[in-house]
Amino acid sequence: MMNNVDRLLQFIEQKAIERAEKIERKLAIGAERVLFLISPMAYCNFNCIYCSIYGFNTKADPSKNLSLDRILKFVDIVIDYKKRHPQTTITITWHGYEPLQYNFNAYKAVDKKIFEAGLHELNHSEDVVPITLGVQTNGYLLTEDKIKFFYERRWRVSLSLDGPREVQDFNRRTRANTPSYDIIMRNVEIYEKYFGRKPPIISVWSRKHLEIGPEGYYNWLKENRFMQADIHHPSVLPNNPNINKFSAIDEAIEWFKELYYIWSNDNSGIILYPFYSYIQALVVGRGRGRACFLQNGCFRVIELSHDGYFRFCDRGIYNLEKHIDNLNKLEELFNTKAHVKLFMRPMVLKYYHPDCSNCKWFSVCQGGCPSEAEYTTLVYKNNLFGEPLWNRTYNCKFHKAMFETIYNDLKQKGIELGIKV
Description:
alpha/beta, 14 helices, 10-stranded mixed β-sheet
């Protein structure tokens, strides 16, 4: 006989299946937006302090690279779907490790295919939403020729850049243990010459940010005219060999609180995440208001990994058990077992995790980032029903503090909020 726990889990699973089927139906009529990531290799030219424990410090092995044939097959599948659903919003971004290590002719080949299909930003018809192309890079391998190509072909370019020289060269050194700041900032200047503005950047917080203070980071953004930035607190496992290069969570909370007040009272127009995400979640009253600009749904972000398999997000959560060699249509990437597990997660947390079921921020957090939840499981060796991602975020305390701070500030300013606490 089924007990109450099993009965509730069955109910949760059914609700998740229904949601996955809904997404599948929306995709079938072209009413869903999707971000695809191409992660072509399992090697990076940097030795960043937060990546060393996660296997990123692997040796260069071209045999592990995603072949150009597989990349172009995937692009053909996207083109096939886009021609059937011309109004669907689709973005393809090269991402992961350092994608500019890959043969740059592959970028040109992808661009050419989409252009010849009439789906490019440069030649689409009025009744077609073009495919957006982009790259997320550490910026070290950018050259004027590459930047000129990205500008002329209307690619989106975003950099991983942690802050002023003393921060960047502490966090993000090359494999040869040389500093990276000056070379990247030189490339930023070339980018600005063509695009007329600085690129958006992603920064990862470390002890060096604590040393320069939030005003040091924010003033650096303003002085260098970076108008969009995403700075987030990383999940750092205790066995990371660089653990001493990070600070205690309480220090990070106070730092980010101060940065929020500096930014919110400034009139520079800088778009600064994660604060945009938190505010959006509080005003709307739902969603995943966490330190991630992909907050509109992990299921909408699908990575083609270097091994040919598809996974959610740039962090590779949940293998969809779909390989590019066996993929025929884009629709096959949706309504998988991985989707059901992902959709079950917030409901399981709400009913079974004591920290989540009693949390006043759960409606806007929903347990936070699934990848951060995996860190929780790795550290505390506990999860719900044997699923590593069925846990609350490792940065739970941090996010609660941010929600509390920003909620109180918005209420004091008389801003109407969608969440009631």
